[in-house]
Amino acid sequence: MPAASSQPAIDGWFATDDAGATHLIGGKCTQCATFVFPPRENNCPNPACASDTLDLVPLSRRGKVWSYTENRYLPPSPYPKTDPFEPFAIAAVELADEGLIVLGKVVEGTLAADLKVGMEMELTTMTLYTDDEGVERTTHAWRIA
Questions:
Q1: How many CA atoms lie within 13 A of 30 on its CB side?
Q2: In Å, how far are 34, 43, 86, 108 from 126, measured between CA atoms?
Q3: What is the radius of gyration, based on Cα positions, of the chain?
Q4: What is the average pLDDT value for the chain, to the nearest integer?
Q5: Interstrand relation of 14-16 and 22-29 (parallel, antiparallel or unpaired)
Q6: How far apart are CA 103 and CA 120, in angstroms?
Q7: Where is the ChsH2 C-terminal OB-fold domain (predicted)?
Q8: pLDDT per residue over 74-126, tens digit each?
């Protein structure tokens, strides 16, 4: 049986370079240099800025845990469910260069007890679910650096 193909669960949130390194894609205001994630190309999030133009830019691959929690319940429909359900950690990571805080799942096998505020994290990807056509849908994720 051929290997399942892999595609992002949400297009445009991350990219992988030729060396296989994944980075998030963010918006950066052309006027005040404020960053935003998820990416967008308009509407600067800085209330002191009136710019409506943001460039899409690669974001830092590393950062520090700002906060974290653990999900211990099945998600409601229409979110994909795993059987059996396995608890998973979620981390808010402050990106090293931008100071932007990005929320994401933590790789399987890492739970809240393994995390600490200030801990170094790095970006990776993981399978979020497999769709009805057998395509693995991937998302950005954090792992301990």
A1: 10
A2: 28, 30, 15, 9
A3: 16
A4: 92
A5: antiparallel
A6: 14
A7: 57-124
A8: 877 777 777 788 899 999 999 999 999 999 999 999 999 999 999 999 999 99
Q: Nearest-CA neighbor of 26 among 140, 112, 128?
A: 140
Whether 92 contacts 115, CB under 8 Å: no
Q: How far apart are CA 52 and CA 48, in angstroms?
A: 12
pLDDT of residue 4: 57
Residue 114 has φ and ψ, to the nearest 5°, of -90, -10
Q: Which range, of 17-26, 60-69, 91-100, averages the lowest pLDDT?
A: 17-26
Sign for the CA dihedral angle at 93, 95, 99, 100 comes to: negative
Of 110, 91, 111, nearest to 101 by C-alpha is 91
Dihedral class, residue 114 (left if φ above 0, else alpha if ψ from -120 to 50, else beta) = alpha
Query: What is the average per-residue pLDDT within 41-60?
Result: 95
pLDDT score recorded for residue 5:
85
Is residue 6 within 8 Å of residue 128, measured between CB atoms? no
Higher pLDDT, 19 or 141: 141
Cα separation, 135 vs 11, in Å, equals 14
Domain layout of the chain by residue ranges: 6-144
